[in-house]
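To whoever picks this up:

The parser on our side crashed when reading a file containing two proteins. I've narrowed it down to the boundary between the first structure block and the second sequence. Both blocks are reproduced below exactly, byte for byte. First block:
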Amino acid sequence: METQVLSLDGQPKQTIVLDDSVFGREVSEGSIYHAIRNELANARVGTAATKTRGQVRGSTRKPWRQKGTGRARAGRRSSPIWVGGGVAFGPQPRDYGYKLPRVMKRVAMKSILSMKARDGALAVVEDFGVESGKTKDLVKILSPISGGKRTVLVMKDDDPMVKRAARNVPWLRFLSYQRLCAHELYYADRVIFMKSAAERLAELYGGDKK
């Protein structure tokens, strides 16, 4: 598929041919669902914890004798039925992460990019840098293209000055073409590729059979 490469003032500058296997394939909604679910699961901290009856601090003395009081039997005050006692079947630290097949993850990324290209939410701009590292300079470049909407900028390399300038922009996220994020791409209103990143991504994903 052909698309325009925009200059920094938002005007068409030249034409680039994007790989149809990456930006024009059939959308696999199932792969997108599993990729996003996998990323969210891997991001969970999983540190929620409660104390069991064996971990509660306190005396292990029997509160009262077994028989003759008219009250129910009680063994120790750390029982879950007592106030201040342990918690029965409460959460314990765990790892929610799991691995997703590599092929499915790549299919999901290509499906999201194809969907954005189909909906007109994908743009390619000429390569640029922010030598000053200032937020206002980066916003001046991207505002005409993004319109201030939720935007993902895909770069060829991790440019430290661009990343520094993008830290304080609430509507902007930045990714490397080698480390795409399905969640960020899917929920973005605009996906902006630097020209070199779009070309490299076609080389990286274009050889896949699926």
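<<boundary where parser fails>>
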Amino acid sequence: MTLLTLSAASLHAQESLIISLDSIEDRIQKQNPDLAAARKRIAEAKGRLDQSGRLSNPVFGIEASQDPSFDEHALSVSIAQKFPITNRLALARAISQTSLQAAEAEVLDVERRLSATAKQLVIQILANQQHRQLLKKQQTLAHQFATHLSDSADKGEGSVLDAGQAKLEAAQFTNKLRQLSARSASFHGQLKPLLGMGTTELLSVTGNLSGFHLPSSSAHTNQRPDLQAAKLHATAATQSAALERAKSRDDIELTFTAGVERTEDVPVGYDSEKHFGIGFRIPLPLWNKNKGAIDAAEARSERKHLEASALDHKIQHQASTAYTEMSEWAKIGREISLNLLPMARKQAELAVKAYHEGQGDLQATLRAREQVLDLSSAELKALRDFHLAKTRYQAALNQ
């Protein structure tokens, strides 16, 4: 029973989160802590929207008076309410509504940037894994070659020096694999916080990088949420300028009063009188016309529109640059895959054959094998950089 418990605990401890390029966005949406915090911007904006466009609270007043003899007295109450004579409240609510839409777009942009960063890390990990598989295959071939030379040297049919050189060549792969493991640990360490994982949780990345498939070229930037947010902020700034102009006329104040007064009417006696009244207070725009605030709001509106235009221009360049880079890496990768790598493999086979037949030296054989490895690594690097550029292109256009 104890063994079963320990076995179950061991299996549970080895469980890991499995993700791929296709599932990374869903994990970011559900578990990323930065995105969860960013979503509170929407709640804040909704609160400001609920508060905007409301009248100020009415003011209740009470006034009492008494003569020295306490025979005559008066009591009156009043309610005063301010009302805007412009569309100030409607503008304030419109600004809050626009700001809410901008907050929603900003949250989507946080998600876009986090997803792009996570995808790039996944691509690096997948490329690392494929590079590791490539090195292991080369390591196996190198060990087989070294073993063959050692056996030949033991039989007196080969050079002991060549066998030692081949062993050294095979041993170097262990160091290269360790370097890849170190880089992989770094990429995992950067990716796990994005996925909302703890430091001790295990992460497994699955899948392979596909070939050099170029997406269709596009110049449409209207799907970028940060651009949408910038345009909404520009709209809100324009609305704010209109609000400042509306504030140049202060609110009017309407007052309702009611009271009762007890006075002495000689020689009749004391009499109680009731009264009701209504009053207006109309501010005169003589000294403060809110000109400074209007000028500042209009300048801010112009700045926000220019910033949105500049961002649009920047996004177009980002997409164009990423697409050009992607195209170049595709050309490089296809050239290596279709032309250079087949030639190098054939040359390596001929070099090994020539060495076994005594018509070539070991250095030429090792150089030929190294060229195959270098070109295979270059092909993988081109594939990795192609997908990194593709991710940047898709993130630039929010595809």
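After patching the parser it read the second block fine. Residues 88-154 form the longest helix (67 residues). The mean pLDDT is 85.
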